[in-house]
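STRUCTURE:
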């Protein structure tokens, strides 16, 4: 049975332009443009995203060049690379990940 709530961009695919959606997206290939999702963006080790990203959750094992805004969390795995600013209430950077930019985790007075 096919999972219709998730989309995969294959390793040999290049998407140029803006992506918008209401489902999870896994990137194995390349995306150039802007990505806006109401769910989770997963960038695998082979994935390269040159875009500003606005999602609920973002898991980076590949490369992101651009700003990442998430309403829930951003995670950089050991293989993950981000060049750009991250804005999210929860940011996880695993030992070995590479990051160049700033992190904004919101208002310090916000309720936990």
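SEQUENCE:
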């Amino acid at each position: 049975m096919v999972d219709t709530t998730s989309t995969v961009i294959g390793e040999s695919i290049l998407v140029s332009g803006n992506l918008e959606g209401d489902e999870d997206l896994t990137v194995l290939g390349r995306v150039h443009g802007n990505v806006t999702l109401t769910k989770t963006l997963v960038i695998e080790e082979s994935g390269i995203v040159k875009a500003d990203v606005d999602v609920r959750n973002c898991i980076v094992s590949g490369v992101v060049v651009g700003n990442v805004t998430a309403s829930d969390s951003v995670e950089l795995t050991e293989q993950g690379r981000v060049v750009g600013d991250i804005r999210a209430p929860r940011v996880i950077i695993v030992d070995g990940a590479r990051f160049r930019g700033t992190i904004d985790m919101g208002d310090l007075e916000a309720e936990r």
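REMARK: The CA atoms of residues 53 and 68 lie 5 Å apart.
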